[in-house]
Amino acid sequence: MTRTINQPVNVTGYIFTKGRTFPSRVQFGNTELTFEHGGLRCLVQKGQEMIEIFNMSDGRDQYRLKFERSARSWTLLTHQVVC
Questions:
Q1: How far apart are CA 55 and CA 79, in angstroms?
Q2: What is the dihedral of CA 80, 50, 43, 24, to 10 degrees?
Q3: How far does CA 16 lie from the centroid of its chain?
Q4: Which of these, 52, 15, 47, lies nearest to 34 by C-alpha position?
Q5: Please, what is the Cα angle at 32 between 80 and 79, to 5 degrees?
Q6: Where are the beta strands (DSSP E) in 18-61?
Q7: Could you give the CA distance from residue 33 to residue 41 in angstroms, rounded to a whole number?
Q8: Which residues of 50-82 are buried (b: 16+ CB within 10 A; e: fewer)?
Q9: pTM, entire model
Q10: Is residue 46 classed exposed, middle or buried when 0-12, 13-18 and 19+ CB atoms within 10 A define those classes?
Q11: Phi, psi (5° rounding) for residue 3?
């Protein structure tokens, strides 16, 4: 089951792997998520700006985050419960 979140988050930790940067911890509201090492990263062009989409896992569930470079803002897009 995938749940749409679409809320701003604060990234409180990063993972540096293979020359790439990934979020390792995010906080939104009273919830803090810690992701396993790495994930999948995709660049998407939206008009003139580049947006990065990250698919991350906490070891149980999957999360999709968006980073907008121009605004330097992070958004938690979805949470997928993996059975």
A1: 10
A2: -50
A3: 14
A4: 15
A5: 10
A6: 20-28, 31-34, 40-46, 49-57
A7: 18
A8: ebbebebbeeeebbbbbbeeeeeebbbbebeee
A9: 0.91
A10: exposed
A11: -110, 130
Q: Which of 7-37 are b and which e, b meaning 16 or more Cβ less than 10 Å from the residue's Cβ? A: eebebeeebeeeeeebbbbbeeeeeebebee
Tens-digit pLDDT profile for residues 49-80: 999 999 999 999 999 999 998 899 999 999 99
* Structure tokens given for 17: 């792997």
Tokens for 4, please give them: 């749409």
